[in-house]
Amino acid sequence: MTRTEKTIAIIGGGIAGLSAAQVLQKEMEERKEAITFLLVEKENRLGGNILTERHDDFIIEGGPDCFLSEKPETITLCHKLGIQDHLMKTNEHVRGIFILSKGTLQELPEGFMLLAPTNFSSFIKNPLISPLGKLRMAMDLIIPGIKSAEEESLAQFVTRRLGKEVLEKIAEPLVAGIHAGEPETMSLKSTFPRLIELEKSYRSLIIGMIKRKKMFKGKKSTNNYTMFMSLREGLATLPDTVAASLNPKRFLTGNPVISVEKLSDASGYLLTLAKGELLKVMSVVFATPAFVTSDLFKGIDPVLSSELLSLPYVSTATISLAYERKEVSYPMNGFGFVIPRIENRKIMACTWTSKKFAHRAPHDKLLIRCFVGGIKNEHLTRLNESALIAISREELRDIMGIHAEPLFAKVFRWEKSMPQYMVGHEAKIKRIEERLSLNPGLFLAGSAYYGIGISDCIKSGEKAALAALKFLPR
Ligand SMILES: Cc1cc2nc3c(=O)[nH]c(=O)nc-3n(C[C@H](O)[C@H](O)[C@H](O)COP(=O)(O)OP(=O)(O)OC[C@H]3O[C@@H](n4cnc5c(N)ncnc54)[C@H](O)[C@@H]3O)c2cc1C
Question: Could you tell me the pLDDT band of residue 376, with boundaries at 50, 70 and 90?
């Protein structure tokens, strides 16, 4: 058993835990503080959901393939790590996203990323929404803003402002593509707070979007980023570089934490690791999925443990398929497509990977990635690999007319990997925070609480590390 007066344990080596470790390592080096930390990870590799594999000259993302540039944390971390020259834009010649509608792919009109149209001529011409649906959308211009303080789901909000057709054909598939969830249960406040702001500021979403667009028009972009960004050699460069920057004594892999107990003299916590080690620490950052954290809290605070357990997760799988370029005639003028559930398909989205990013496949080959699972079709993620590949091929044949045999296929299964921010999420997180404050020295980080994007997770890991540092006696 080791005993260090000022030790912080970080449980979980996904991007949240690694970001916490990065902050602590920097503090140790810069301030020469007499603190130590140890990151403990269950798997033999670090990175959690961020996983890149190489296959010949293909770069294949198993989990996330990009991050939003408007949230600064990922880009800032790349600069801190000295890998800013790895930052890679999306292909600027194709931007569109397509939506499957009655079996064919229709381009999402410009400006629709936030659900309301900003370019009327392209919207009016676009066949995705029926004439009646377009009329209903236009009612957004006259519908008053909401007065009630009751929390709305994304579905309630979109139906109220823009109508059911926009919900079914646009909002639902876009949201399923990001959160793998369904808009009926999803908290608007916790997932798309900007829509609430738009309604508050401008009453109408359409007016709000147009005014915002005008505000930014003419302002030269001050940065060199596209909306979505990646890293040249794949996103795993990020966790790999953090790991390489850590002193190897500061992390343990392949060794899950199986319990955390309060020390009887209240001087800290005792961690038991699966391989038998015991670790006495003063503070713990839990950067594990909420259901794992719940388990580890059982002996410390059963009330907090059950609140954490009530944060739901869904499973997904990604299936990447490689083809000879000459064998695929579909034009692929965009980043890929999403599929409304009313289309009753087995895949929920598809990324045209080698179109979205350069260097993902050799020039005479193509890489395409299908998503399966999510709240609607979670059972499909439990199928074996060949069944998942067969489903993907069937759907690509139907939708894009791809009959060719793939050169190879790679399946990545993500069991209970996508936290769902349901209506009431914010109130639940407040209760969790209040309860956590009764347990001095314990902190939470990761995708379950304040945002599921990579930048959100980095921010939560850094914040938890700073809070743990502040907790230690000086
Ligand atoms: C398929 C998929 C696609 C995604 N696409 C995007 C995208 O394009 N852009 C984006 O911004 N986000 C995306 N996300 C979300 C984003 O990847 C995640 O929210 C983020 O990586 C989560 O990081 P984390 O550190 O919170 O958790 P995780 O990555 O889940 O890390 C938690 C770690 O804890 C470890 N652990 C578990 N139990 C124990 C234990 N008992 N002891 C020790 N360690 C333990 C796990 O092994 C894991 O390494 C995607 C997610 C998935 C699954």
Answer: confident
Distance CA 108, CA 112 (A): 7
Q: What is the pLDDT of residues 279-335, one digit of tens each?
A: 999 999 999 999 999 999 999 999 999 999 999 999 999 999 999 999 999 999 999
The architecture (CATH level 2) of 2-48+239-311+421-471 comes to: 3-Layer(bba) Sandwich (3.50)
Nearby residues of 274 by Cβ (< 8 Å), 6 or more positions away:
42, 255, 256, 257, 258
Please give the model's pTM, rounded to 2 decimal places. Answer: 0.95
Q: 4, 281 in Cβ contact below 8 A?
A: yes
Q: Where are the domains positioned within the chain?
A: 2-48+239-311+421-471, 52-92+313-419, 108-216
Using CA atoms, how far apart are residues 308 and 436, in angstroms rounded to an integer?
11
Dihedral sign, Cα of residue 348, residue 354, residue 355, residue 357: positive
Tokens of 185: 């249960």
Per-residue pLDDT band for 35 (boundaries 50, 70, 90) equals confident
Look at residues 296, 329, 445, 464 and name the one whose alpha carbon lies nearest to residue 397: 329
Q: How far is the CA of 18 from the centre of ligand 1 (A)?
A: 11
| Ligand 1 probe mutation, 235, 237, 258, 288, most atoms within 8 A of CB | 288
Q: What is the pLDDT of residue 220?
A: 53
